[in-house]
Amino acid sequence: MKKKSDRTAASKKKNAGPAPDAGAAVAALKRLASKKTRDGMLRYGIPQDNAFGVPVSKIQQLAKQLGRSHELAAALWETGWYEARMLAAYVDEPERVTPAQMDRWCRDFDNWGIVDTVCFVLFDRTPHAWGKVEPWSERGAEFEKRAGFVLLACLAAHDKAARDAQFLALLPLVERHAGDERNFVKKGISWALRMVGRRSPVLNVAAVRVAKHLAKAPEAAARWVGKEALRELTSPGVTKKLAARRRAAAG
User: Fold this and answer.
1) Distance between CA 203 and CA 206 in Å, rounded?
2) How far is it, in rounded angstroms, from Cα 211 to Cα 225?
């Protein structure tokens, strides 16, 4: 007589559908593509070389239809297609992502759309995210370096259990690299500083201090980062929200 656990496993296997196929998923993406979307990608700084021209909303819809699959995500990434890699971020299973996979994908980053999507919907939900911020921020390649700061911004937005001290420890990275003149790097740094500064009253004070220092820096990029952050972090809207959080914390 079979054990109950054996019967349950067999039942699950019987009821499970066929494993998603990367080739079929890519074919589905091609059907969702349009020349208009592809032609418009360059306006947003997304290369067209390996792209079909599929709106993000349709990629998200397809991801919901396919469901989560770590194996499918790996196969989609290997195709090299922009939309397939976007889809990979949505279907992968965060708990199965490894540090080695994160590093491999980071080395493949070649545009801001992939960087931001992978970090925002997948990498920052893995248990390895905090350990990648600093080493990636020290990399030389533009989009790999951006990934370190985008990941920090995403953690500030999504990791509700993180302590202020974890973010305070990483603010020196912003000061150290804010002078990088490359467009997508400085924008990633700006995003990280602003998101950290919006997270709590304590972090707002620290981020504003960094922003004021950068606003007087000799490098134009650093001054831009500092002024952009100051404008947002001292705005009435942010100040009001942080005051409400302070009152709530005080009981």
Assistant:
1) 5
2) 7
